[in-house]
Amino acid sequence: MEFPRCDTTVAWAALQGHFAAHGRDLDLREAFNRDPGRFDSLSLQAPGVFADLSKNLWDLKTRKLLTELAQECGLEARRDAMLAGAPINTTEGRAVLHTALRAPRGTAPFSDEVHGVLDRLFDFAEQVRDTGSSGIRHVVNIGIGGSDLGPQMVVPALDAWAHPGITMHFVSNVDGHDITPVLRRLRPDNTLFIIASKTFTTQETMANAAVARQWFLDQGGTDIDRHFVGATTNLTAAAEFGIHITFGFWDWVGGRYSLWSAIGLPIAIAVGSEHFRALLAGAHAMDRHFAEAPLKSNLPVQLGLLDVWYRNFHRFSSRSVAPYHQGLKRLPAYLQQLEMESNGKCVDLDGEPLPFGTSPVVWGEPGTNGQHAYFQMLHQGTDVVPVEFIAVKHPTHPHADLHAKALANCLAQSQALMLGKTTEAALGEAAPTASASLGKLTVARHRTFPGNRPSTTLLLDTLTPHTLGALIALYEHRVFTSGALWGLNSFDQWGVELGKALASQLLPRLTASGAADTRGLDASTAGLLARLKD
Ligand code: F6P
Questions:
Q1: What single string gives the DSSP state of each residue in 189-206?
Q2: Average pLDDT over residues 440-469
Q3: C-alpha distances out from residue 33 to 36, 93, 369, Å
Q4: Residues forming the active site
Q5: What are the boundaries of each domain within the chain?
Q6: What residue's CA is closest to ligand 1, atom 9?
Q7: Which residues are annotated as active site (predicted)?
Q8: Whether the CB of 198 sits within 6 Å of ligand 1
Q9: What is the domain class of 98-275 according to CATH?
Q10: How far apart are CA 187 and CA 194, in angstroms?
Q11: For ligand 1, is residue 147 a contact (CB within 6 Å)?
Q12: Are 215 and 142 within 8 A, CB to CB?
């Protein structure tokens, strides 16, 4: 499939002209004054997620041109190729079919395999959840990257549905400070370890799995077969480790797209098969929206196009995510892998250097915590960082007063970013803490907010398994959209390989007895190695 890269299209040139004439200087306050219908015309409803896109630095013309850009770049054909199972991950020669993992039986490629594993997985999860007969009280997921971040994000998000008698633990880091405090709280007889690794070769996971197995035996554990299970595509390696209960998946499931597969076992155990099915159904509803809605009203597409607009025209290099729901505390970390591992690339599909910026830095913390840390920079710093607020209308806790405060803060932050405060307004305020030696104008300047800072607000009715599934799929397809326009491969991750290879060369130098062998090393690494070995 040959499509032009975004920067060679007619629409791109038109967008450049539009940016120079209207885009760069668009003032949100004026735009709202000019157009009372702005909120309605720039809001979108997708399954489970309402999006207010009106506080972004764009207008209907920008949206039209960006949508034309998507058409010119063949976004629909690329999307359809992915959904049909074409090998669009060209550098690994693989299809990209995470959407098949949440498709109803018989409606997508590999349906029998997918539903066969899901059926077994759900049976197993329900057996574990029957704590009276399973005896399991603690479940430890050992995995990293995509074999950790999805379940680690979803389990707290769905805490309202969690099994009250089972505590979930997540161990990912090869640093022993991760597993040590977890093991300290466990007993072998009531603990289940899930060794989650697509490849079953990842150093961190294999090392932690070995520590867990040794701990289990040292503590008098007898039945490894019953207390260790695997989620992997590499059933042979799992068997060699001594695991005989395994839940498989396939090479067409990317690690960062795998929570819907066997990697979701901790989720199924935590919330049960019925709620896991609802998570899948929510994602599937978003898949349908992505596949069928016109580009203009297609939420993942429009979010991806905004990302291109911000990265390549406004040249914003980061985006902050602020979920005003504590259950989504790990969403920023999850999105970091999803977006930055997918689109953090500097060559196109043909290996040619890309002459424009790609993945932004994605970062954030739950609101309101972020407000008391880095929001200062978002409001008054020298860089503009688009912010993405996520709020829910109905909480799953009983504290209406707390919820109202959280929502008021969420709305206030996007309002403050947009409205700002002029120096004149600041001059009119009392400044009780000002030093006597500072002039009024100086103080007012410190209290001035430039405003016109963009944000998106995503609203969910309630954070349920269904809406969470839709929200995650929304992000997946948004990343697909920007990656497709940039003409890169969103589904490989060669950038993690070099560090892995060098680590395996350094490990024997660190563990060898005697003085540090620094031969052939750069002076900095040699110096550090010598200090560590001293
Ligand atoms: O960090 C690279 C990576 O391959 C990720 O893409 C993946 O999610 C993670 O490592 C874990 O890999 P595995 O599931 O094979 O252990």
A1: GGEEEEEE-SSS--HHHH
A2: 97
A3: 6, 52, 32
A4: 341, 372, 500
A5: 98-275
A6: 145
A7: 341 (proton donor), 372, 500
A8: yes
A9: alpha beta
A10: 15
A11: yes
A12: no
pTM of the model: 0.97
Structure tokens at 414: 């996007």
Rounded distance between C-alpha atoms, residue 349 and residue 3, angstroms: 11
- What DSSP letter does each residue of 449-467 carry, written as one string? B-----EEEEEEEE--HHH
State how far Cα 205 lies from the chain centre: 20
**Per-residue model confidence (pLDDT) at position 434:** 66
All residues at 6 or more sequence positions from 51 whose CB lies less than 8 Å from its CB, including other chains: 43, 44, 45, 299, 302, 303, 456, 457, 458, 459
d(CA 332, CA 153) in angstroms, rounded, equals 9
Local structure of 233: helix, strand or coil: coil
pLDDT at 1 over 70: no
- The kind and range of the H/E element at 397 are none
Q: How far is the CA of 203 from the centre of ligand 1 (A)?
A: 10
Is ipTM over 0.90? yes
C-beta separation of 302 from 293 below 8 A: no
Residues 6+ apart with CB under 8 A from 13: none
Mind spelling out the 3-state secondary structure of 154-180? HHHHCHHHCCCCCEEEEECCCCHHHHH
**pLDDT at 165 > cutoff 90:** yes
The strands making up 138-142's β-sheet, listed across from edge to edge, are 167-171, 138-142, 191-196, 228-232, 245-248
Query: Residue 455 has which token pair?
Result: 């944000």
Predicted confidence at residue 136, as pLDDT, reads 98
Structural tokens at position 104: 């109803």
Token pair, residue 446, equals: 């410190």
Helix, strand, coil % in the chain, rounded to nearest 5: 55, 10, 35
Which tokens hold the place of 274? 């019925």
Q: Residues 234, 196: contact at Cβ < 8 Å?
A: no
